[in-house]
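Now for my pick.
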Amino acid sequence: MKYRRRLFRQPEPYDTEGTDELFAAAARENCSYAYAHCPEYKTILDAEGFSPDGLRAVQDLAALPFLPTALFKRRRLLSMPRRRLPIVVTSSGTSGHTSEIGFSFGDLWAGLKMVLRVCRKRRLISPKPCHYVVFGYQPNRHNRTGVSKTAFGVTLFTPALSRTYALRWQDGKYVLDLKAVQAAIVKHSRSRFPLRFMGFPSYAWFLMKHMDDQGVRVQLPKGSKLMLGGGWKQFYTEEVEKPVFYALAKKVLGLEETDIIEFYGAVEHPILYCDCEQHHFHVPIYSRVLIRDARTFEPVQNGTPGLVNLISPMVCGTPLLSVMTDDLGVLRDGCACGRKSPYLEILGRVGLSDIKTCAAGASEILNGTEVSL
């Protein structure tokens, strides 16, 4: 995967225009590999009359058949034997089904380089030790979800003095323990080391509301950060506007808006989208984003809302080159932070049961096709 290696070695993580040619080469390389090693993926491309050789420029990505994330929740698609995949992670399964995504050693190495470059840009990597509160799952051998591994990985950005989890493994199940988290926050507010949070924004909101109702206020040490990712999931009806969230974080934790960092991503598209100082998710060089009309699936111009189609050549263990999410979004140009790439704004979610993909219904195409492991 020489073109992928070159792409993930680029020093500037947001120079999408300057890496278009290299990205197209890496996408063609990835597509050719999946076509040759994943029978199910080959079936879908053949049914659409698409050849990997058709990827010559980034403009050709629009013609590449995409796979809906729902397909991965119903079928295991791998481009390598399971024994060659050191890590297999699952999605959170809030819809009742889970995706199972395999990563090769090369995939993981590319991902590490991506994370280091993106997080250095946001000044999240530091030698100064920190305490951590994770609004997510305590690691457990029974838990293979990508979100739990990501949350733990974020605690490696600095030397971790301690880790407190909101969801603790107890008696064979996860138990939400916000009382212990609140006690840890109060304790660490008196420390000379920063406190960093990571995890679901819904749990962060619920805890801050509880602290506010109880009249509990703390001033966290300088350098503390509230890092959020994973979305609101089943609590989407409780989601609040960002200014309301930021105001409560200032009131209860003493954190400024500049201390709050957000991430966007998916197990089926493991690219790190880290917001800029203006809280915009700029598209990094490791991916391209197409917004498609919800009826025709044709790409729309920047500034027009539609379905979010995510493209990346990072993963070879699973055919994830082009996936269609159940997110509605819009790409916008221009940002006061100075990053040149467009940024993705997520507007909401739709039910994938209502989406019929341009892959002519990938599940229907694959009926009768056995998954080879």
